[in-house]
Specification:
Elements (H helix, E strand, L loop, with lengths): L19 E4 L2 E5 L5 E5 L2 H17 L8
Antiparallel strand pairs: 1-2, 2-3
Protein name: DUF6316 domain-containing protein
Pfam families: DUF6316 (PF19837)
């Protein structure tokens, strides 16, 4: 679990959970907005999928960004 403050956060660190979860033998990642993506064959593949997702989100203009 991440125990560091993020940019813009003040006060106690809120509860955080892993973005990755496994159902059966398939792996998924979830976003802060509640979007689940998968299935992936392994956690490593899910991590790659998350990195790709975050890269695309960063390319979006601010008004369309899911942040």
């Amino acid at each position: 679990m991440d125990t560091q403050c993020r940019t813009g956060e003040q006060g106690p660190v809120p509860f955080r959970s892993s973005r990755f979860f496994c159902v059966g033998s398939k792996w998924y990642f979830t976003t802060r907005e509640g979007f689940d993506s998968g299935p992936f064959a392994s956690r490593e593949r899910a991590e790659i999928g998350l990195r790709r997702f975050l890269h695309v989100v960063r390319l979006l203009p601010e008004e369309q960004s899911v942040h």
